[in-house]
User: Fold this.
Amino acid sequence: MRAGVAPQAATTAAYRDLGVEAVPGTGHLAAVVPGTFGAWMHLLGRYGTKPLAELAGYAVGYARHGHPTLPRVTSTIEAVSHVFREHWTSSAGVYLAGGAAPAPGSRLRNPDLADTLERLGREAAAAGDDVAAQAEAARAAFYAGFVADAVDAFARTPQWDGAGPDGERAAHRSFLTGADMAAWRASEEATASLTFGGVEVHKPGLWSQGPVLLQQLALLEAAGVGDLAPSNPRWIHLVIEASKLAMADREAWFGDSLEAGDPRAVAVADLLAPDYVRSRAALIGERALEGLLPGSPRGLEPRLPEHVRRAMGESDGAWPRGLGEVRPGEGEPTVARGDTCHLDVVDRWGNVVSATPSGGWLQSSPVVPGLGFSLPTRGQMFWLEEGHPASLRPGARPRTTLSPGLLRGADGRVTAFGTPGGDQQDQWTVPFLVRHLLHGASLQAAIDAPSWHSTHAPSSFSPRGAEPMGVVVESRLGSGALAELRARGHRVEELGPWTLGRISAAGVRADGLLEAAANPRGMQGYAVGR
Assistant:
């Protein structure tokens, strides 16, 4: 599914004219066309059977009447409450409605969002009983009707983002317009895939980080991971090293910004070519690799963005303003990190959906007045550096971390899987798939097993820092495994026993029975059937 794109007026020169050297992680300058609603309407129109008002009724109920506030939501609102009070008053109206952040477990309401969804439902119903016609009417109301009008008006109103020259607090208008919204619509495209453990693994293409997962699986197969038991610490080392190599290729080759036919553009097939995979797997030794080492598919010379080189300590240049570590007292709204949501759904007829909608975090973008939701800030993933696959280009998709997945077996089995987690999405799912597809663990057992991820490559999110050689692990891996990782040169940060991973999965088995599994960590994931 195609994601929302950069506005037509969003060019590198336009940002430079503002004195902005990097797309900030918050505020109007990071806004792109919101794509989630268009994707849902595309799916509804092509595959759906129920009227939009019925489907949206559940969300309307939660928005209108409220739902219990999760502790993490409370802490996030508290962390950015000063920004809401001083700058983003539309957000304060939703999240500080009682004068302060809602207490954990208290009722959190969003009546403007309820009104928006109800009006979209009415617009859909006015198109008649045909579901496809309803979906198109709702899509038009969102992208060329009352929603687009409200977004256009708000985007023209400067909002604080702290991205002024020399780092002073500044307010900017957005480059996003109603015309950008009207010109975009969701569409379908082929997945990227490979066969691992006798099962096809499908991911989004190179405009996302999805092929990172495919590369890791190919590297691990070439490195013989199937010969190692999950209890062997060496297989953890192999998985970490494979992720570092794949992430290095992500930084050099992934993105949506090179025009079709550009000789510098690579395809997923180039990155999964057997000779290329073998050459990359040969780099994995007994010690942790240093530096970021992208490969040369088709003999092309890799190019890392300047900030990536600086984050890895490979340049003597100063940090660009806005990309360094957040300093205390500066009030940067992204101090409080958010997260994505993910869902996997299978119905009685065997239709399977894997979705990872995200981007309009409450702490990264002010609420659009009257609509009840924030604009997506995925524009922060563009580089303001010409000629790179992930460079800013009008109409291009940001190189997103969103990465839903599907498994398809020759026996008819289809399974949706995925996780929130930004850069970790295509790391946490690797040991899950290895355990499930190579060692026969059930979906639930593979999800429950101890997890880890590398922090070696730069983050996709502002300020896009890196922790070279870093590995974050669950303590359940055991003292012996952690000691061996450290002996191999990894800089291990040990967290609690149940802290990493948010994976869920749902699908239809080869015998036609439905199955699902969910992550117990954080007590926010669940599997349910009816």
Notes: The radius of gyration is 23 Å. Residues 315-335 have pLDDT under 50 and may be disordered.
